Structures are given as structure tokens and as C-alpha cells.
Amino acid sequence: MRTAGFFPRKRLFRFGNLQRIQVEGFELVYRQYRDVVLRFAMRCVGRREIAEEITADAFLRLHQNWTSIDTEMLPSWLLTVVKNRAADYWRRAQLEKRYVAEERPQERSQSAEPLWGLFEHRALRPVHRICLTLRYIHEMTVSEIGAYLGLTEFQVKGHLQYARGLLRKQLSPGQAND
Predict the structure, then answer these.
(1) Of all helices (H) and strands (E), which one includes residue 121?
(2) Which CATH architecture does the domain made up of 7-91 adopt?
(3) What pLDDT digit, counting tens, does each position of 17-55 carry?
(4) Cα(128)–Cα(158) distance, rounded to whole angstroms?
């Protein structure tokens, strides 16, 4: 009869109390690499809260793919996931900046010019501006906006509702424009 010592490490997870071994192995890897992964994410994005989200996402991906990942490749695999998530973050930030800062003179007429300034209301966050722009200028549906920005339909609806409420307050008679 073979003992567990003769099997490669990857096969050990398929015998015995599979659930316990997987959880203990994942927790060990998490404790071993979490600080390194978080520091790398901080260097990639420069913001702690974003770095924490990216780190959590990297370990979530690791947990989802735990049985198919070679344990010797773990550090590089985790850092690759962080690098890709950081690139996604910067790509999304650039997209947000582009839609917020972009002006399209050929699309704006004299009558539309006052309405364009509504998107610059100081209470609107960039995500509200981009949702408004995609919905009303580019005429995208809520589901298309969600897919494009990586948000759920409920999040997009919430951002649009909040932005419209602010704009409604700004346009209502008797209100001081901020």
C-alpha cells in the first residue's frame, strides 16, 4: 500500500478530508503572501483602499482556482493577478477621465451648451458623470452601461437616480445653483 509521502503535493488534496486540507492550505498561503501582495498592489495603484480591493480579488481568484494552480507558481500567479487588476483599474480611471474631460464641440449646439454644464456639478462624482454621459449622450441602455463599466444594473440605476436627483435640485426654481 502506498503512503501519502509517495504522491506529489497536488494529489494529496484529493485524499482524506479534502475540505479541511484545502482550507488549511489556503489559509497558510494567505498568511504567507498577503503582505507581499498588498505591498505590490500599493505600488501598482498608489491608493490603499484600491490596493486592498485588488488584494482581496487576487486571493478570491486563488480560492476559486485552488485545485488547478501549481503551488510552486503561487507567488508569481498572485502577483500576475494583481498586475492585471491594477491595469484594469488604471484603464477604467483613464476612461472615466476621458469622458469627464472630453468636450465634443461638433455635438454641442448653442441650446445644448447650458445642459452640458450640468454634468460638471460639483456634487457629482466621476462615476455619476460617466453614467449620465453614457446614458444620455451616447444613448446606452442601463445593462450596456453596466457591462461597459463593470457594474451591476442596480449600481448603474442607483448612480443615475442619484445624479438625476442632484440635477433636479439644481434646475428647480428657487434653488441656488452650486
Answers:
(1) none
(2) Orthogonal Bundle (1.10)
(3) 434 445 567 788 888 888 999 999 999 888 899 999 999
(4) 9
Q: In angstroms, how far is the first alpha carbon of the chain from the final one?
A: 79
- CATH 1.10.10.10: does it fit domain 103-171? yes
From residue 19, give the alpha-carbon distance in Å to each of 4, 62, 72, 95, 100.
17, 15, 21, 42, 48
Cell numbers at 61, concatenated: 481568484
Q: Is 139 left (phi over 0), alpha (psi -120 to 50) or beta?
A: left
The single residue listed with the C-alpha cell 434653488 is: 175
CA distance 115 to 88: 31
Instruction: Please check whether residue 41 is in contact with residue 87, taking contact to mean a CB–CB distance below 8 angstroms.
Output: no
Name the residue ranges covered by the structural domains of the chain. Answer: 7-91, 103-171
pLDDT for the residue numbered 111: 44
Q: What is the spatial distance between Cα 128 and Cα 132, in angstroms, rounded to a whole number?
A: 6
Contact 67, 32 (CB under 8 A): no
0.85 exceeded by pTM: no
